[in-house]
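Could someone model NDP with this protein?
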Amino acid sequence: MDETILFNALIIAWLALAAPTFVSLFFVTAPYGRHARRGWGAGMPSKLGWVLMEAPAAVVFGACYVLAEGKTITAGVFFLLWELHYVHRSFIYPFSRRGGVKRMPWAIVGTGLLFNAVNAYLNGRYLFVLSGGYPSAWLGDPRFLAGLALFLGGLFINRRADLALTRLRRPGETTYRVPHGGLYRWVSCPNYLGEILQWIGWAVATWSLAGLAFALWTVANLAPRARAHHRWYGEHFPDYPAERRALLPGLW
Ligand code: NDP
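Reply:
Sure, complex below.
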Protein backbone atom coordinates (compact mmCIF):
# COMPACT_ATOMS: atom_id res chain seq x y z
CA MET A 1 0.00 0.00 0.00
CA ASP A 2 1.11 3.56 -0.71
CA GLU A 3 2.83 5.07 2.35
CA THR A 4 0.86 8.32 1.96
CA ILE A 5 -2.43 6.48 2.52
CA LEU A 6 -1.06 4.77 5.64
CA PHE A 7 0.43 8.04 6.87
CA ASN A 8 -2.85 9.93 6.42
CA ALA A 9 -4.83 7.20 8.20
CA LEU A 10 -2.34 7.18 11.08
CA ILE A 11 -2.35 10.94 11.51
CA ILE A 12 -6.17 11.12 11.54
CA ALA A 13 -6.36 8.30 14.11
CA TRP A 14 -3.59 9.96 16.15
CA LEU A 15 -5.37 13.32 16.16
CA ALA A 16 -8.67 11.65 17.13
CA LEU A 17 -7.03 9.74 20.01
CA ALA A 18 -5.64 12.90 21.62
CA ALA A 19 -9.09 14.12 22.77
CA PRO A 20 -10.15 11.01 24.81
CA THR A 21 -6.62 10.81 26.23
CA PHE A 22 -6.87 14.42 27.39
CA VAL A 23 -10.21 13.78 29.13
CA SER A 24 -9.27 10.43 30.70
CA LEU A 25 -5.99 11.75 32.15
CA PHE A 26 -8.03 14.14 34.32
CA PHE A 27 -9.54 11.03 35.96
CA VAL A 28 -6.54 8.66 35.95
CA THR A 29 -3.21 10.37 36.61
CA ALA A 30 -0.27 8.55 35.00
CA PRO A 31 1.30 6.52 37.86
CA TYR A 32 4.90 7.75 37.97
CA GLY A 33 6.81 10.27 40.09
CA ARG A 34 4.71 11.64 42.98
CA HIS A 35 1.62 9.92 41.56
CA ALA A 36 3.18 6.41 41.60
CA ARG A 37 0.88 3.87 43.28
CA ARG A 38 0.26 0.15 43.61
CA GLY A 39 -1.73 -1.84 41.06
CA TRP A 40 0.13 -0.92 37.87
CA GLY A 41 2.22 -4.09 37.58
CA ALA A 42 5.98 -4.59 37.43
CA GLY A 43 8.36 -1.71 36.93
CA MET A 44 11.95 -0.87 36.05
CA PRO A 45 14.47 1.67 37.40
CA SER A 46 13.03 5.04 36.44
CA LYS A 47 16.24 6.41 34.84
CA LEU A 48 16.31 3.42 32.47
CA GLY A 49 12.59 3.90 31.89
CA TRP A 50 13.15 7.53 30.81
CA VAL A 51 15.91 6.53 28.37
CA LEU A 52 13.78 3.74 26.84
CA MET A 53 10.74 6.01 26.55
CA GLU A 54 12.47 9.02 25.03
CA ALA A 55 15.27 7.53 22.89
CA PRO A 56 12.88 6.37 20.11
CA ALA A 57 12.04 10.02 19.44
CA ALA A 58 15.72 10.84 18.84
CA VAL A 59 16.44 7.64 16.90
CA VAL A 60 13.32 7.40 14.69
CA PHE A 61 13.45 11.09 13.73
CA GLY A 62 17.20 10.78 13.10
CA ALA A 63 16.60 7.73 10.87
CA CYS A 64 13.93 9.61 8.88
CA TYR A 65 16.47 12.39 8.29
CA VAL A 66 19.35 10.13 7.32
CA LEU A 67 17.22 8.00 4.94
CA ALA A 68 15.68 10.98 3.14
CA GLU A 69 17.11 11.98 -0.21
CA GLY A 70 17.79 15.49 -1.52
CA LYS A 71 17.65 17.24 1.84
CA THR A 72 17.42 21.03 1.95
CA ILE A 73 19.04 23.33 4.52
CA THR A 74 15.57 23.73 6.08
CA ALA A 75 15.45 19.97 6.71
CA GLY A 76 18.81 20.28 8.47
CA VAL A 77 17.49 23.07 10.68
CA PHE A 78 14.41 21.01 11.67
CA PHE A 79 16.68 18.05 12.39
CA LEU A 80 18.92 20.15 14.67
CA LEU A 81 15.99 21.69 16.57
CA TRP A 82 14.36 18.31 17.23
CA GLU A 83 17.61 16.67 18.33
CA LEU A 84 18.53 19.69 20.48
CA HIS A 85 15.53 18.69 22.56
CA TYR A 86 15.55 14.91 22.28
CA VAL A 87 19.25 14.10 22.68
CA HIS A 88 19.09 16.03 25.95
CA ARG A 89 15.74 14.54 27.03
CA SER A 90 16.77 10.95 26.21
CA PHE A 91 20.40 10.72 27.25
CA ILE A 92 21.19 13.62 29.63
CA TYR A 93 18.02 14.59 31.49
CA PRO A 94 17.26 11.09 32.92
CA PHE A 95 20.63 11.10 34.70
CA SER A 96 20.17 14.62 36.11
CA ARG A 97 16.88 13.73 37.84
CA ARG A 98 17.29 13.37 41.59
CA GLY A 99 15.02 11.22 43.70
CA GLY A 100 16.72 7.99 44.66
CA VAL A 101 16.02 4.67 42.98
CA LYS A 102 12.38 4.99 42.01
CA ARG A 103 10.68 2.50 39.72
CA MET A 104 8.51 3.21 36.70
CA PRO A 105 5.74 0.79 35.60
CA TRP A 106 6.27 -1.04 32.30
CA ALA A 107 2.86 0.25 31.22
CA ILE A 108 4.14 3.84 31.39
CA VAL A 109 7.42 3.03 29.65
CA GLY A 110 5.54 1.14 26.90
CA THR A 111 2.98 3.86 26.23
CA GLY A 112 5.66 6.58 26.40
CA LEU A 113 7.83 4.67 23.93
CA LEU A 114 4.90 4.23 21.52
CA PHE A 115 3.93 7.91 21.86
CA ASN A 116 7.45 9.07 21.04
CA ALA A 117 7.98 6.60 18.18
CA VAL A 118 4.69 7.57 16.47
CA ASN A 119 5.32 11.32 16.87
CA ALA A 120 8.86 11.00 15.56
CA TYR A 121 7.72 8.94 12.54
CA LEU A 122 4.86 11.33 11.69
CA ASN A 123 7.04 14.43 12.01
CA GLY A 124 10.22 13.02 10.47
CA ARG A 125 8.59 11.28 7.54
CA TYR A 126 6.39 14.28 6.73
CA LEU A 127 9.10 16.94 7.02
CA PHE A 128 11.82 15.09 5.13
CA VAL A 129 9.88 13.05 2.55
CA LEU A 130 6.09 13.26 2.26
CA SER A 131 5.92 17.07 2.24
CA GLY A 132 8.12 17.04 -0.85
CA GLY A 133 10.77 19.00 1.10
CA TYR A 134 10.68 22.51 2.56
CA PRO A 135 12.47 25.08 0.38
CA SER A 136 15.34 27.13 1.84
CA ALA A 137 13.12 30.24 1.60
CA TRP A 138 10.91 28.74 4.35
CA LEU A 139 13.58 29.84 6.86
CA GLY A 140 12.57 33.46 6.16
CA ASP A 141 8.81 32.84 6.35
CA PRO A 142 7.06 34.65 9.26
CA ARG A 143 5.46 31.32 10.33
CA PHE A 144 8.86 29.71 10.65
CA LEU A 145 10.35 32.69 12.50
CA ALA A 146 7.42 33.05 14.95
CA GLY A 147 7.36 29.28 15.57
CA LEU A 148 11.13 29.19 16.09
CA ALA A 149 10.92 31.99 18.69
CA LEU A 150 8.17 30.10 20.54
CA PHE A 151 10.06 26.81 20.30
CA LEU A 152 13.28 28.28 21.72
CA GLY A 153 11.43 30.30 24.38
CA GLY A 154 9.54 27.17 25.48
CA LEU A 155 12.73 25.12 25.54
CA PHE A 156 14.40 27.74 27.74
CA ILE A 157 11.45 27.83 30.17
CA ASN A 158 11.27 24.02 30.30
CA ARG A 159 14.99 23.54 30.96
CA ARG A 160 15.16 26.27 33.61
CA ALA A 161 12.11 24.93 35.43
CA ASP A 162 13.37 21.31 35.34
CA LEU A 163 16.76 22.50 36.64
CA ALA A 164 15.08 24.37 39.51
CA LEU A 165 13.35 21.11 40.52
CA THR A 166 16.63 19.19 40.38
CA ARG A 167 18.21 21.75 42.70
CA LEU A 168 15.47 21.26 45.30
CA ARG A 169 17.08 17.93 46.23
CA ARG A 170 20.53 16.74 47.19
CA PRO A 171 21.68 13.62 45.28
CA GLY A 172 19.79 10.55 46.54
CA GLU A 173 17.18 12.61 48.40
CA THR A 174 13.48 11.89 47.74
CA THR A 175 11.84 14.78 49.63
CA TYR A 176 9.45 17.19 47.88
CA ARG A 177 9.76 20.95 48.60
CA VAL A 178 7.82 23.98 47.37
CA PRO A 179 9.67 25.46 44.37
CA HIS A 180 10.13 29.24 44.25
CA GLY A 181 11.54 31.76 41.78
CA GLY A 182 11.14 32.29 38.05
CA LEU A 183 7.78 31.21 36.68
CA TYR A 184 7.15 29.14 39.84
CA ARG A 185 5.96 32.44 41.26
CA TRP A 186 2.85 32.12 39.08
CA VAL A 187 2.39 28.45 38.22
CA SER A 188 3.04 25.03 39.77
CA CYS A 189 4.37 23.48 36.54
CA PRO A 190 6.40 25.91 34.40
CA ASN A 191 8.32 22.93 33.02
CA TYR A 192 5.06 21.65 31.48
CA LEU A 193 4.12 25.15 30.30
CA GLY A 194 7.52 25.48 28.57
CA GLU A 195 7.14 22.06 26.95
CA ILE A 196 3.66 22.95 25.61
CA LEU A 197 4.87 26.30 24.22
CA GLN A 198 7.82 24.55 22.61
CA TRP A 199 5.68 22.08 20.66
CA ILE A 200 3.10 24.72 19.71
CA GLY A 201 6.11 26.62 18.33
CA TRP A 202 7.14 23.50 16.43
CA ALA A 203 3.64 23.15 14.95
CA VAL A 204 3.77 26.78 13.76
CA ALA A 205 7.36 26.57 12.45
CA THR A 206 6.62 23.40 10.47
CA TRP A 207 3.05 24.46 9.60
CA SER A 208 2.13 20.78 9.48
CA LEU A 209 -0.60 18.44 10.71
CA ALA A 210 2.11 16.22 12.20
CA GLY A 211 3.40 19.15 14.27
CA LEU A 212 -0.15 20.08 15.30
CA ALA A 213 -0.84 16.49 16.40
CA PHE A 214 2.29 16.49 18.55
CA ALA A 215 1.36 19.83 20.16
CA LEU A 216 -2.17 18.57 20.93
CA TRP A 217 -0.81 15.35 22.44
CA THR A 218 1.59 17.35 24.62
CA VAL A 219 -1.35 19.40 25.94
CA ALA A 220 -3.35 16.17 26.42
CA ASN A 221 -0.54 14.65 28.50
CA LEU A 222 0.59 17.65 30.49
CA ALA A 223 -2.47 19.84 31.24
CA PRO A 224 -4.22 17.12 33.32
CA ARG A 225 -0.93 16.27 35.02
CA ALA A 226 -0.33 19.93 35.89
CA ARG A 227 -3.78 19.99 37.51
CA ALA A 228 -2.92 16.82 39.49
CA HIS A 229 0.47 18.27 40.62
CA HIS A 230 -1.19 21.53 41.65
CA ARG A 231 -3.83 19.72 43.71
CA TRP A 232 -1.10 17.53 45.27
CA TYR A 233 0.92 20.61 46.35
CA GLY A 234 -2.20 22.11 47.96
CA GLU A 235 -2.87 18.88 49.87
CA HIS A 236 0.71 18.44 51.10
CA PHE A 237 1.76 22.03 51.86
CA PRO A 238 -0.78 24.03 53.93
CA ASP A 239 1.09 27.28 53.20
CA TYR A 240 1.22 26.67 49.40
CA PRO A 241 1.01 30.10 47.65
CA ALA A 242 -2.70 30.76 46.99
CA GLU A 243 -2.09 33.01 43.97
CA ARG A 244 -0.21 30.27 42.12
CA ARG A 245 -2.12 28.48 39.33
CA ALA A 246 -1.53 25.01 37.83
CA LEU A 247 -0.30 25.90 34.34
CA LEU A 248 -1.44 29.30 33.06
CA PRO A 249 -0.45 32.37 35.10
CA GLY A 250 -3.52 34.02 36.66
CA LEU A 251 -5.93 31.78 34.75
CA TRP A 252 -5.81 28.04 35.41
P1 NDP B 1 7.87 16.55 37.23
O1 NDP B 1 7.82 18.02 37.35
O2 NDP B 1 6.79 15.74 37.86
O3 NDP B 1 9.26 16.00 37.85
C1 NDP B 1 10.50 16.37 37.33
C2 NDP B 1 11.61 15.96 38.31
O4 NDP B 1 11.65 16.86 39.43
C3 NDP B 1 11.43 14.58 38.93
O5 NDP B 1 12.72 14.03 39.19
C4 NDP B 1 10.69 14.86 40.24
O6 NDP B 1 10.91 13.86 41.23
C5 NDP B 1 11.35 16.17 40.65
N1 NDP B 1 10.43 17.05 41.39
C6 NDP B 1 9.22 17.50 40.94
N2 NDP B 1 8.66 18.32 41.85
C7 NDP B 1 9.50 18.38 42.91
C8 NDP B 1 9.47 19.06 44.17
N3 NDP B 1 8.44 19.84 44.50
N4 NDP B 1 10.51 18.88 45.01
C9 NDP B 1 11.56 18.09 44.66
N5 NDP B 1 11.66 17.44 43.48
C10 NDP B 1 10.65 17.57 42.61
O7 NDP B 1 7.99 16.23 35.66
P2 NDP B 1 7.84 14.84 34.86
O8 NDP B 1 8.71 13.83 35.51
O9 NDP B 1 6.41 14.54 34.63
O10 NDP B 1 8.42 15.27 33.43
C11 NDP B 1 9.80 15.50 33.22
C12 NDP B 1 10.03 16.26 31.91
O11 NDP B 1 9.45 15.53 30.83
C13 NDP B 1 9.38 17.64 31.91
O12 NDP B 1 10.24 18.54 31.28
C14 NDP B 1 8.12 17.45 31.09
O13 NDP B 1 7.76 18.63 30.41
C15 NDP B 1 8.53 16.33 30.11
N6 NDP B 1 7.38 15.53 29.69
C16 NDP B 1 6.89 15.70 28.42
C17 NDP B 1 5.76 15.02 28.01
C18 NDP B 1 5.18 15.26 26.64
O14 NDP B 1 4.04 14.83 26.39
N7 NDP B 1 5.85 15.94 25.71
C19 NDP B 1 5.11 14.03 28.88
C20 NDP B 1 5.70 13.93 30.19
C21 NDP B 1 6.81 14.65 30.56
P3 NDP B 1 9.94 12.56 41.35
O15 NDP B 1 10.18 11.76 40.11
O16 NDP B 1 10.44 11.92 42.61
O17 NDP B 1 8.51 13.06 41.44
